[in-house]
Amino acid sequence: MGTTKQKLADSLLNFGEKMKKLFIVFTILSAIPSLAQKPVSGGHLKPLQAIMDIRHYTITLNVDPVQKSIRGNTEISLLLNQKTDTLLFDLQHLLKVEKVWVNNKLLPFYQENDYLYITSKKSFDNGHQTIKVLYSGKPQVAKHPPWDGGFTWATDSLENPWIAITDEGEGAKILFPCKDHPSDEPNEGADLIITVPKGLSVAGPGLLVNQTISKHTTTFHWKTNYSINNYCILFNVGKYDVVTRNYTTIEGHQVPIQFYVLSYHVDKASHHLDILEKSLHVQEKYFGEYPFTKEKIGICETPHLGMEHQTMNAYGNHFKYQTVGGEDFDWLMHHELGHEWWGNKVTAKDWAHYWIQEGICSFGDALYVYEAEGEDAYLKRMREISYGIQNKLPIILGDEVIEEDAYQPDLYSKGAFFMHTLRYVLGDPLFFPTLKGFISNPLYTYHNQVTTDDLEKYFSAAAHQDLKPLFDFYLRTTSKLAIEIHETNDQKYVARFLNYEGVLPLDIQTDTGITRMMIDAKGVSFTSKIMPIADPKGFYLKTVLYD
């Protein structure tokens, strides 16, 4: 969801010829450094935040649609693993802090560069700390949600306020003070206590604890006990009806489905939930039981296209359906639902490994086609995906990458195609149980974030072979597999890899049909009465050279 950065610094550089004006420009820039670029999430974990383990957030806010402002407080529960005289949190400069308490004691603080510093003459001891921050302001407005995040202050067709929040790229600091890094989720979940004008509803993560109505406002208390990534700790506001039904998971648990739908679209809800249930069945078949059975399966109609928000996915595809397997299918709803497994249950520890969330989720989109229409339709879909691969940058750019730098279209397309390749290399009897095993393993789920190395080592162990070269080739380079077919004699050929040192299976079509061969850089001989075709079904990103 990256965009170009604002060019404030450039606009200030046209200051004339005198060196005195240069000083003025630098003074202005130093006074407003946080305006020079959009807020970003992730990157290098700061030492003052590395000593924190976030346990819980409680966010209590009043939302004013007329003033487009928020006011309230956030309480942060955390553990310190060492003493410190300073606590550091992320909070965008547009939100002004008024008071701060640590363990019920009022303490000094200051804000600088989208950071909140809380200081104490007496060190904060290691162990449990409770921080409460009182703040208010007009939060960042989303210019192009969900790709550019912030608040969307919209109205529905009946002129009712319709508010959405998106912040995957910018981070949760646009809404509340936090440790804004993907490596640390609140282990004990979050509470959102949101007050809005009477007549509006708030849709949030987890379960609705209570709803308190006063003369002019209504307060909604949402609570999740699951760990949750920061960009899912948010809410949407609108004139909603709530359509509810129960869903029986693959393991037999009863989970409520709740659709927060605009009141004038309520007649569309039943059919839409029928489609959602079909998506649930497919996701559960390949990835295991729905991950948040103790809470709900939620979707909420939003004024932007959509976003994965744990147990309350944003939906703005306007009920535009495709036909897959002869039935209506909503690609947007299916994709965001898939993030409940890949993104919410399994979360990348570093944005560098973002492809795990988007790539495997997109592979799950193709699996719906496979389930509904069969292998040939799935192969066609994977070919279509391959056409969109740009291959300008490696999928993994290094470590400690910010979301804006990590985000690129190939996360989806090349990430999904890599899983397609891995499926072919391992074969279905090994690939699918291993994929489901990984996402079912407590070592890699919920508050235990993952990296590509975790996934590779898990698959390598299951396959009893070193798959790191394959992972690295696809994810850390922009190379395509170069295959040479060399005719050595009449009807005799050798197939070999020109840029891959390991051994991989390769289908070769000859006059006798398709044969799977194990190929390496040395090559394998075979005969054919016709010109052979390497990888005829398209399991690899490749170039084929005939000699």
Describe the structure using short key phrases.
single chain, 547 residues, alpha+beta, Immunoglobulin-like, Neutral Protease, domain 2, eight-stranded mixed sheet, five-stranded mixed sheet, globular
| Unreliable sequence segments | 1-36
Instruction: Please bin the fraction of helical residues.
Output: 10-25%
Q: Supply Rg.
A: 26 Å
And the CATH topology of the largest domain?
Immunoglobulin-like
**Strand residue content:** 25-35%
Mind telling me the CATH superfamily name of the largest domain? Answer: tricorn interacting facor f3 domain
CATH architecture of the largest domain: Sandwich
Number of helices: 12
Name of the level-1 CATH class of the largest domain: Mainly Beta
Largest sheet: 8 strands, mixed
What do these coordinates show?
An eight-stranded mixed beta sheet has the order 5-4-8-2-1-11-14-13. A five-stranded mixed beta sheet has the order 16-17-18-20-19, covered by helices on one side. It is an alpha+beta fold. The chain folds into three domains: 44-238, tricorn interacting facor f3 domain (Immunoglobulin-like, Sandwich), CATH 2.60.40.1730; 346-475, Neutral Protease Domain 2 (Neutral Protease, domain 2), CATH 1.10.390; 481-546, Immunoglobulin-like (Sandwich). The model is unreliable at 1-36 (pLDDT under 50). The chain is 24% helix and 33% strand. Helix 5 (331-338) packs across helix 6 and helix 6 packs across helix 9. It is built from twelve helices and 29 strands.
